[in-house]
Write the structure tokens for this entry.
Amino acid sequence: MTSGHTRLRAATLSTAPHDGRHPTRRAILCGAASLLALLPAGRGALAARKHRAATAAPPAAAPDAPPGTYAPANSLIGPVDTPARWACIVDYTTGAVLLEKAADERMPPSSLTKMMTAYVVFGMLRAGRLKLDQSLTVSEKAWRMQGSKMFVPLQGSVMVSDLIQGMVIQSGNDACIVLAEGVAGSEDQFVSLMNAQAAQLGMTNSHFMNATGWPADGHYMSARDVTTIAMHLIHDFPEYYHFFSEKSFRYNKISQENRNALVVKGIADGLKTGHTDAGGYGLCASSERGGNRIVMAVNGLPSSNARAFESERLLEWAFVNFENATLMHSGAVIDNAPVWLGRAPTVPLVATRDILLTLPHGWQNRVHISLDYKSPIPAPVTAGQQVGEVVISNTGLADIRVPVVAGADVGRLGLLGRASAVLGQKLGHH
């Protein structure tokens, strides 16, 4: 048998007789073709889910941003100016990075550290080693801790639920120390748990020296790692995520508002803020609209006003400019491929998994989806047998390849049937 190469750019397949198996490419979406027009209504093989179709407004300067501090971040749709020194914006569902600026650079994380502290504490609650209604004793070290505080009483007892609220809402350094000592006996031993957990989660540019984010040599995170721990908090501990959404907390007759301006304004449903002289003003936030969730981390901003303004602007930019599209559903019939010497003339080709991508609005005008397989497929064919792959290209990312399998068994013709088919092909050539 000889081999050849066929490339089909339109949604048609060659019907010429085959004297060999030809690598065949079928373009099932090219340019502005409509996904929904490819299959009958209700089949669901290719469907796009669109959230918003607006376009972003031009960026405005953040308040208190000194002249010349704007430097572009990289995004899937081109450079985006931001005064943030570090930034990372990720789609929660797909993990697509929508924007990044020095996202892997080690930075002083300040109280963004407390998200890792919370993750370890939540793990202890899940394991039953800690209970929300359990009380922990306040040590002198915790009571004397400087910076932001929830004002725990020296030698007093505080419930774990109150300590979590004090840590997350009021950013209480004292609450962190009480929790760390209650969980691990000492802050140092708790920090070992934090570092081990960070390594397990793949946070390769993070190292902790304390549970609070207090400035210390060797204490750092990257913006990408901040989004990583945020996404794990949302995914791994949904039963405790509500702590990050609370707008205020009253303890010891002192009421304090959540320091996350996006949470207070109802723009985000969590997570955390931070500030040190070395790291500037930072914020990690998550928000969900129309079933689409975005996670954002920014740091190195010059003031709390700039932090609030720029984080809101960038979050809005992400929702306005991107959408999640389901390009294919698992088990959906993509095509019917010819079968050589089979009891059926064709076999359905189906996707092995859902294909959900985060893409810029207007992606329909650019993305290409093609189906690659060798044709005809020789019988016998077994359902589930890989016969080719779907290739998604021109998304701004590397080509995405998804295996395609046979959707049914196709037995081989008997001796008489095979002889007849071969004879028919030879006569067809003449």
Summary: The first strand starts at residue 6 and ends at 8. Residues 247 and 265 are 9 Å apart (CA to CA). The two ends are 18 Å apart (CA to CA). Confidence is low (pLDDT under 50) at residues 1-19, 30-62.
